[in-house]
Amino acid sequence: QSSGGVLPGKEVFDLHQTDGFILDLTRALADDHKLKIDMDGFRRAEEEHKRKSGVGSWGVMAAGPLDAIQKDSGETEFLAYERTSIEAEVVGLVVDGKRVDEVNTEGTTVDLVLDRTPFYGESGGQVGDTGSIRGASSEFEVLDTQKHTGLIVHRGHLVSGTIKVGDTVFATVQGTRRAGIRRAHSATHLLHHALHRVLGEHAMQRGSKVEDDVLRFDFSHGAAVQPGEILRIEDIINERIAEGATVSIAYMDIKQAKEEGATALFGEKYPDKVRVVSMGDYSKELCGGTHLDNTGQVGLCKIINEENVAAGVRRIVAYTGKRALEQVRDNESLLKEVATALKTPQAQDVPRRVQQLQDELKQLKQELAKFTKASVADRVDAFLSEAEHVGEAQIICKQVDDLDREGLRELADQLRTKGKSVAVLLATVIDGKVALLAAVSKDLVKRGVKAGDCVRESAKIVGGGGGGRPDLAEAGGKDASKINEALSKGADVYRSALS
After folding, report:
1. HSE-CB of 461 using CA atoms within 13 angstroms
2. How far apart are CA 339 and CA 341, in angstroms?
């Protein structure tokens, strides 16, 4: 919600943090609706989140020390594209926002900087690497990797020993996780290509999140993607995977890249020299992420969800590699469990069996409705004979223990049909909760008697609420022990309206 045409910064940050909205996407949507963003509030919310969460808090707490490390040692040599392990030198350590020369307490959270690294720092929607950094007398676990103005910062904790500035260490990326991230990132490019094929060129990327064999991809599209379209998109992706096309990397001027048709991310700012990732002859994108050598290494891609995230923006979540295979197997296992529960010998018989059960249920409901109607009819005369008379009007307030809400409606309708000038309040207990229904004849409604007033006051007694039309209203409550009191209250409301 906006206040005075300004979107609160905290809400914009929550969209970014929780739902993955890049800031430029929110800006664009805000511009479309002639709204502004409270950027000061956004930055305050961002800093507060970092302070509370710890992860990434170096961006706020340790900016000064990190800047000093960069000034003394220069930028980190980035080798994540070529290597997953390398010998390096520790050039900086930051603990609790302060630069230190050594760390010797196990479990201490540290921001560690090397002169060169094989670790990928979170950017472009791709999560940072994890892994280990080992020295002659120390072991450091990397839990996250971030970028900071030319530095690659390894955030983690000391596992054992003492680590010092100047130590020679061996930095190793967690290879299995990196491989899953590479599969997911390459699959996002294949997904982008497939979206263009199925939905059209307007389906442009609006944001992404790439993790270990999991991808989340936001794109422009004005309607829900239909099940048939999802299948076609998934088919195209897996066809491209099966082709095993070469994934090639090239560096060129941004102008040349655009002339060659490379796709750029909406709202992203690019340097004059860019990295272009191509797959076969069908995909070419500006991208700084880690990728596979050929599309076949993705193995399998399975779309698991498609949803709306904003006006004109949809989101697809998909699994790749082993995670995708596990999802398929989980689905098969679930289907087999359903088949067993339905007592069908083959899983392919499940739809037929479900339809059969639905038909049986429909028939049973029809039979139950007939029984309910007959059961209700048996009570109508008894209830009318026991009605309280106020002039020519009849007040009926009763508890009925063996009817559901539909049964209460049927009973109320029959009482109003057979009786004259009837005001009804019925109560029952369904799954431990009170159900109330009030109904009033049309002639009494004209005299100012309202079912809504009756049920509203009665519901208060049993700890609930409700309402409806003057001639028919329903409510619920929690305290079944006070049903009689609620019925008495309803009768009082009717008497008052009739007096």
Report:
1. 21
2. 5
Q: Which residues pair with 475 in a beta bridge?
A: 436, 466
* Whether the Cβ atoms of residue 315 and residue 218 lie closer than 8 Å to each other: yes
Q: Which run of H or E residues covers position 422?
A: strand 422-430
What CA–CA distance (Å, rounded) separates 399 from 142?
66
Q: What is the pLDDT of residues 356-388, one digit of tens each?
A: 889 888 888 777 766 666 667 778 888 988 989
- What are φ and ψ of residue 395, in 5° steps? -110, 125
Looking at the DSSP assignment, which residues form a beta bridge with residue 317? Answer: 216, 305
Strands (E), 30-149: 36-37, 77-78, 85-95, 98-100, 102-103, 109-114, 116-117, 131-135, 138-148
Where do we find the tokens 């511009």? Answer: 31
Quick check: 183 and 288 in contact, CB under 8 A? no
The answer to whether 209 touches 315, Cβ cutoff 8 Å, is: no
Beta-carbon contacts of 283 under 8 Å, excluding residues fewer than 6 positions away, are 189, 190, 192, 193, 277
Model confidence pTM above 0.70: no
CB atoms within 10 A of CB 401: 7
Phi, psi of 234 (to 5 degrees): -65, -40
pLDDT at 19: 53
| HSE of 341, CA atoms in CB hemisphere, 13 A | 8
Angle at Cα 281 formed by Cα 280 and Cα 287, nearest 5°?
A: 70
Tell me the C-alpha distance between 173 and 182, whole Å. 13
Instruction: Specify the amino acid at residue 113.
Output: V
Cβ neighbors of 492 (< 8 A, separation 6 or more) are: none
- Give Cα separations from 144 to 36, 63, 126, 193 (angstroms): 33, 17, 12, 30
Which tens digit of pLDDT belongs to each residue from 110-156?
999 999 999 999 998 999 999 999 999 999 999 999 999 899 999 99
| φ, ψ (nearest 5 deg) of residue 249 | -120, 135
- Residue located via tokens 């990728």: 291
Domains of the chain: 6-53 (no CATH), 61-173 (2.40.30.130), 180-330 (3.30.980.10), 377-498 (3.10.310.40)
Torsion of CA 67, 70, 72, 78, to 10 degrees: 170
C-beta of residue 163 within 8 angstroms of C-beta of residue 90: yes
